[in-house]
Design a protein that fits this description.
Blueprint lengths: L33 H21 L17 H4 L3 E13 L3 E13 L6 H10 L5 E5 L1 H5 L3 E2 L5 H21 L4 E5 L7 H15 L6 E6 L6 H8 L7 H10 L5 E4 L18 E5 L11 H12 L7 E4 L9 H22 L1
Parallel strand pairs: 2-4, 3-5, 5-6, 6-7, 7-8, 8-9
Antiparallel strand pairs: 1-2
Helix pairs in contact: 1-3, 5-6, 6-8, 9-10
Bound molecules: zinc ion.
The site of zinc ion has 6 residues, from loops.
Length: 342
């Protein structure tokens, strides 16, 4: 039997319960500590899984309930990184943030996400997806006082991420996704070393591999940036042909409510396309019909067996009830279009 068409999935993150971390806030500190915190993370992960399953999401994630931030949540487990003395850097050429710095050769002393992946695998019979930061986006979210070369540091991160990914695959993870919002900003570097680093990160993997490229959360710096991009957002036009030639299986992109010309999806021939049908930059919950319309528009450029309805980006900054509504709209919208195929 062939797998069902239009399998739904999310980019990765979901809001955390208020007993775990402050809601509606990026990089929110944990509300608990020690063993109680670890137990709370597992409980929140279970809830994130249940919410996805009940909403009709086919390929489920842990909602990133056990990390504070998609990049620094990884960096804080590595040696060679000073997480105490933060430096202010400009992120994605858009906003300043205080970030860790690289001060010595980077080493991963132990697996970072194995335990989280075990919880996810044990709690659901659905296919599961695990998200990791992409090498270029990691380089762009820290201060490098050691390697002094973005390309070299990215390759070092890629080797570490590859070890992590191989372990995740061995634990039963079906899709490993690398988040590379930086691919929408440094288009020349994507071509010279970005995709090369990404391919190093997926070396030897047999599970599905994905890359997520977006226009960011709905924070002010991103909304201001989008105002400068004109009436058509054509960043993908430069990166998709490079990705189409790469060994990455899936590309997750922003679509609904964006100014991305839909025909750019046609540049990803041969790849699975995770079509963003949920806008994470607004608290307005899409109707299932709106989701269905986005899927139908994408179907003109992506065959149904390669189209995965998805969110535009992570939902961590949204109120929990809004994110739940959006999950349900995604599941219901895909169901409408699936029925049209029967
Ligand atoms: Zn994103």
């Amino acid at each position: 039997m062939s797998p069902p068409l239009l399998q739904t999935t999310i980019v990765g993150s979901l809001p955390k319960p208020s007993w775990l971390a402050q809601p509606s806030k990026l990089w929110a500190p944990w509300a608990l500590e020690g063993a109680v915190l670890e137990e709370a993370k597992r409980d929140a992960t279970r809830l994130a899984i249940r919410d996805q399953e009940r909403a009709g999401i086919d390929i489920v994630s842990d909602g990133e309930q056990s990390r504070r931030h998609f990049v620094t949540g990884y960096l804080e487990h590595l040696q060679g990184i000073d997480n105490e003395h933060l430096e202010t850097v400009r992120i994605r050429q858009r906003y300043d943030a205080k970030v860790p710095q690289v001060i010595a050769p980077i080493v991963r002393p132990h697996p970072v996400h194995s335990e989280d992946a075990r919880v996810l695998r044990a709690e659901t019979d659905h296919p599961i997806k695990y998200t990791l930061p992409g090498p270029m986006t990691m380089v762009d979210t820290l201060h490098d006082a050691y390697y002094k070369s973005r390309a070299r540091l990215a390759m070092e991160f890629a080797k570490i991420l590859n070890q992590e990914a191989r372990e995740l695959e061995a634990l039963g993870v079906n899709v490993i996704q690398f988040d590379e919002p930086a691919f929408n900003v440094y288009m020349d570097e994507v071509k010279t070393w970005g995709v090369e680093a990404l391919e190093r990160a997926v070396e030897g993997l047999h599970c599905k591999t994905a890359v997520h490229i977006c226009y960011g959360y709905g924070i002010k710096a991103n909304i201001d940036w989008k105002q400068t991009l004109g009436s058509q957002w054509r960043q993908y036009e430069e990166t998709f042909p490079v990705l189409a030639r790469s060994r990455i299986d899936q590309v997750s992109l922003e679509c609904h409510n964006s100014k991305v010309p839909i025909e750019l999806l046609g540049l990803l021939q041969g790849k699975d396309v995770l079509v963003g049908a949920i806008d994470v930059a607004t608290e307005t919950v899409e109707s299932p019909q709106e989701v269905a319309a986005t899927i139908r528009a994408a179907l003109k450029y992506v065959p149904a067996d390669k189209l995965y309805p998805c969110t535009n980006c992570g939902m961590v900054p949204l109120p929990r009830a809004v994110a739940l509504g959006k999950l349900q709209a995604l599941g219901a919208g895909a169901k409408i279009v699936r029925a049209e195929f029967d």
